[in-house]
Amino acid sequence: MIAVLQRKVQIEKALRTALENQEFQLYYQPLIQLKTGRIRGFEALIRWNSRELGFVSPLDFIGIAEETGQIVPIGRGGLETACHKAAELRKLYGTNFIISVNVSALQLRNKDFVDYVQKAMEGSGIGPGELEIEITESVFIDSYEEVVVILGRVLALGIQISLDDFGTGYSSLSYLRKLPIDTVKIDKSFITDVIYSVRSKSLLESIILLAQKMQLAVVAEGIEDQKQLEQLIKYNCDYVQGYFFSKPMPSREVNQYYESYLQKNSCS
Ligand code: C2E
Ligand code: CA
Ligand code: CA
């Protein structure tokens, strides 16, 4: 207990100067369209290399940054960087990728959220089709109506919305009926389990079918091996993401990754 609290206090303290010290960096992980092998885009995932604490996992600091409110400026910086990356890739390669950015409840409910998303897009010169935000069901907990209105404004800008960690929340199915979203991202726990039991297989297949029947695109995340991939091909999943294809990588490696993708595809 004491150790956990001490760590939390340390993180809180180190977070105060992390932004001005430029300790954050975005990594990017590709999402692949199963049918074609084409790269749909990249999910931006934040990395923090703290001067005091070394590398700290987002799982350990995002929650604290939400409590202190620092997630708002941190997230804003991340959004701008991600938009610039999409613009850079289009300029270099002439391809539109969708860059997906994780957004937490506090960010979304900040009164300037929609304005600064629009500014980040316009400032970088990307079109709305090149940006997606990823939310989890938890953003709806405190104020469902308010969040639905905000998401409606985001969609009206032409930005896509993906529901992350799908299947792990409480009332997933009733939400799914009403939410303003384009895509569901099936939580990786479903993928990990899929090779072990018939029930897990049926569940995964049914979730994919259900979402597709509702005209939602389906992303499966956390794919680590060939067997898991084979199941997803069998179930006709739309997009896949995971270490099997690539780990999240720093900005410059994204370019190398795409160049080697181009090379492979021009040879075959
Ligand atoms: P998430 O959005 O569900 O992101 C997926 C996590 O799974 C990432 O962890 C990613 O590195 C990891 N992952 C990807 N492929 C595989 C795989 O094949 N196997 C396994 N075991 N893991 C895989 P990461 O980067 O540590 O991020 C953890 C969580 O922190 C994210 O979960 C997201 O909720 C949050 N997060 C990350 N970046 C941001 C950000 O910029 N803003 C906000 N608000 N939250 C963020
Ligand atoms: Ca995510
Ligand atoms: Ca997820």
Helicity range: 40-55%
Task: Give the names of the bound compounds.
Answer: ligand C2E, calcium ion
Termini gap: 56 Å
- The H-and-E topology, N to C, reads as HEEEHHEHHEHEHEHHEHEEH
Describe the structure.
The chain is of the alpha/beta class and 268 residues long. It is built from eleven helices and ten strands. It is 51% helix and 21% strand. The protein has an eight-stranded mixed barrel, surrounded by four helices. The protein binds ligand C2E and calcium ion (2 copies). One calcium ion binds next to strand 6. The site of one calcium ion has 5 residues, from strand 6.
SSE topology:
Blueprint: H1 2-18, E1 24-33, E2 39-50, E3 54-56, H2 58-68, H3 71-93, E4 98-102, H4 105-109, H5 113-124, E5 131-135, H6 144-156, E6 160-166, H7 172-178, E7 183-186, H8 188-193, H9 198-213, E8 217-221, H10 226-234, E9 239-241, E10 249-250, H11 251-267
Helix pairs in contact: 1-2, 3-5
The structure holds ligand C2E and calcium ion (2 copies).
Residues 29, 45-46, 57-59, 62, 71, 75, 78, 102-104, 134, 164-165, 188, 221-224, 242-243, 248 line the site of ligand C2E.
